[in-house]
Structure formats: C-alpha cells, structure tokens
Amino acid sequence: MDLLMDNVTVFTHPLIQHKISILRDKRTGTNEFRALIEEIAMLMGFEALRDLPLQDVEVETPIETCMTPMIAGKKMAVVPILRAGLGMVNGILALVPSAKVGHIGLYRDEKTHEPHEYYCKLPSPIEQRTIVVTDPMLATGGSAIAAVDFIKQYGGKHIKFMSIIAAPEGLKRLHEAHPDIQIYVGHLDRQLNENAYICPGLGDAGDRIFGTK
C-alpha cells in the first residue's frame, strides 16, 4: 500500500494485484468477473474502513459482562455510481452489513466525455454517515467529481472514494477537485487513450459485470 499524495492510497497487496490481473483478462467471464469485483472491493474496504469510529458497549459473554468496542454513530452509507459501481457494493456490505445504500446515476456524453446526472437518492441523515462512493474505473474523473459534488450538496462530509483501476489523469483531477476526501485505488494504470478509456485497463466494467455490450 502506497500513499502517493495526501488522502490518496494505491494498494500493493498481492491478493488485490492478483485478482485485478484476472479481471484484465478478456477471457474472464461475467460470473467470475462479478465475483472478483466484489472480492477486491472487500479487500480494499478492509483497509479503507480502518478509521471507522468506535464506542464501547456492554456485552454479556458466556463468562461475564464486559465493555467491548462496536462501530459508533449513524453507521455507513455505500453510494455506487451507476451502474458499474453496483458491482462493488456487496463487497463493502460483507464488512458492514448495517450500512445503508444510496445511488447516483450519471451518464457520460460521448463527445465531451462530461458527466450528466439522471438519478440521485441518498440515505438520511447523510451528514452523519461515513460515505463510501464506489466506481470500479476512475478514468477522466468527471463522474467521480460530479458524484462527490452531489453528495456534498446534500450535506455529506465524511467521504471516501474507491476505484479498482484508475488513470493518472482522473486521479489527479479528482484529488485536485476534492482534496479533502480519501481516495483508494486498487491499481494505477498508464494513461487514458483518445476515447478516454484506461490503458491497459479491462474494457468497460459495467458491460463485463452485467454481461451487456
């Protein structure tokens, strides 16, 4: 795990890197691809959630009563960017089953590559929650920036962004636009191509998760 800049973490764990390599393979089918996305999200989430607040609660064990730590406050919210971000949700929920789930729908203009909102539904009270925004691919950064903009407009404060693969251009743009959020990246790829696809990347994550073209 490397810290590239303030609030930006790029993972180097062998299990994450191994699973990402299988994701890249064009021969990896939908079922395996979907399962790997969940597994990687869970592995990344284990580290990304290390600063969740705790409070001591009273529990009765078979031996005695004791005070023991549990997650404090209004738990978490997982907010996938539709539709590919949905693939990472269950991996996070496996760690924190009590988390609420919001959704942000964005589509990218094929000519300008800029995002447009078509749906936004967030759990309330969003300002009291740790918010994990998920999107497997951080390409231009436009969708990620827009999603975080929307969450902040609704009052969200404690925001983390998780992507499995990022392009340097998108990571830089997101960090400059929102230097206060924590960004977690599974692998930092080489560059974007002329069509704003990450190289070497893994193709269209949404199509590969849901088996569409």
UniProtKB/TrEMBL annotation:
Q: Which GO terms describe its molecular function?
A: glycosyltransferase activity
Xref: Gene3D superfamilies: 3.40.50.2020
- Domain Phosphoribosyltransferase: start-end pairs: 11-212
Q: Give binding positions for uracil.
A: I198, G203, D204, A205
Q: Which InterPro entries does UniProt cross-reference here?
A: PRTase-like, PRTase_dom, Upp_B, UPRT, UPRTase/APRTase
Q: Which reaction does it catalyse?
A: UMP + diphosphate = 5-phospho-alpha-D-ribose 1-diphosphate + uracil
What Pfam family does this protein match (any one)?
UPRTase
Where does the chain bind 5-phospho-alpha-D-ribose 1-diphosphate? R83, R108, D135, P136, M137, L138, A139, T140, G141, G142, S143, D204
EC assignment: the record states 2.4.2.9
What does this protein's record comment on cofactor binding?
Answer: Binds 1 Mg(2+) ion per subunit. The magnesium is bound as Mg-PRPP.
- Which controlled-vocabulary keywords does the entry list? Allosteric enzyme, Glycosyltransferase, GTP-binding, Magnesium, Nucleotide-binding, Transferase
Q: How is its activity regulated?
A: Allosterically activated by GTP.
Pathway stated in the Swiss-Prot or TrEMBL entry: Pyrimidine metabolism; UMP biosynthesis via salvage pathway; UMP from uracil: step 1/1
Question: Which cofactor is essential here?
Answer: Mg(2+)
Name the protein family. Belongs to the UPRTase family.
Protein function: Catalyzes the conversion of uracil and 5-phospho-alpha-D-ribose 1-diphosphate (PRPP) to UMP and diphosphate.
Q: What is this protein called?
A: Uracil phosphoribosyltransferase
What organism is recorded for this protein? Lacrimispora amygdalina
Q: What is the lineage of its organism?
A: Bacteria, Bacillati, Bacillota, Clostridia, Lachnospirales
